[in-house]
Amino acid sequence: MPDFDLPAFFRSVLLLPDEALIQRAQEVSEVLEVKKGECVIKQGDPVKNVLFLIEGIFRGYFPSSSGKEITDCFVSEPGFTVMPSSDLAEAAPISIEAVVPSRVLSIPMQEVTSRIWRFKSLQSLYFRLLMKSFKNHWELKTALYKFNAAERYQWFCRTYPDLVEPVKGKDIASFLNMTPVTLSRIRQSLRRAEAQQPPLPGGEEGK
């Protein structure tokens, strides 16, 4: 595994300026390699570590009443938490698995909860991540209620362009509250429409 610059990650990605906090975090944190399909948190289990994404993609999901997996969220932004809930004390309400080979920074939960009210920068980090999570979920809820199935998929492509290829169709479909068959038809329709687009005159496509 290549060397990873922990201090730079804490300062530049997590925006933590406190040297004492960074020093302690270096002492207790661990960089973990996660295989594709590996579950890092299982629904119902206590959450013992706070995970920050270094690189990769994770998917949060839970079972429906019929046993089908419902995709709740995706994490692909470095520095974002790979966590099942904003409540650090509750058991995991969802499971989280790696969509592609990924890396995370793992810090024991006790180390975080014992310091969160002692360091303003740590409180600020928690608040930023909380607001980002709320924003993501609110945008998804708005898309689900406002758009039809094709518009929801187009919204997904605009909002999560890096997830269109690596994420399985069935997981995108459940995230957007549609069946895999519906998603397949939408993709085929969009490909046909794109293929029918006339080429730009005078070779402008190369400009």
- Work out the helicity level: 40-55%
Shape category: globular
Helix-strand makeup class: alpha+beta
The major β-sheet equals: 4 strands, antiparallel
Distance between the termini: 41 Å
The largest beta-sheet arranges its strands as: 2-6-4-5
In DSSP terms (H or I, runs of 4 or more residues), the helix count works out at 7
What value does the Rg take, in angstroms? 20 Å
Write down the domain tally: 2
Average of pLDDT: 92
What percent strand? Answer: 15-25%
> Any guess at the CATH architecture of the largest domain?
Sandwich
Find the CATH superfamily of the largest domain: Jelly Rolls
Poorly predicted regions: none
CATH class type of the largest domain: Mainly Beta
**SSE pattern, N- to C-terminal:** HHEEEEEEEHHHHH
Q: What is the number of beta strands?
A: 7
Q: Within the CATH hierarchy, at the fold level, what is the topology of the largest domain?
A: Jelly Rolls
Walkthrough of the structure:
Helix 6 packs across helix 7. By secondary structure, the protein is an alpha+beta fold. A hairpin with a 5-residue loop joins strand 4 and strand 5. It has a 4-stranded antiparallel β-sheet with strand order 2-6-4-5. The radius of gyration is 20 Å and the shape is globular. The protein starts with 5 loop residues before the first helix and ends in a 12-residue tail after the last helix.
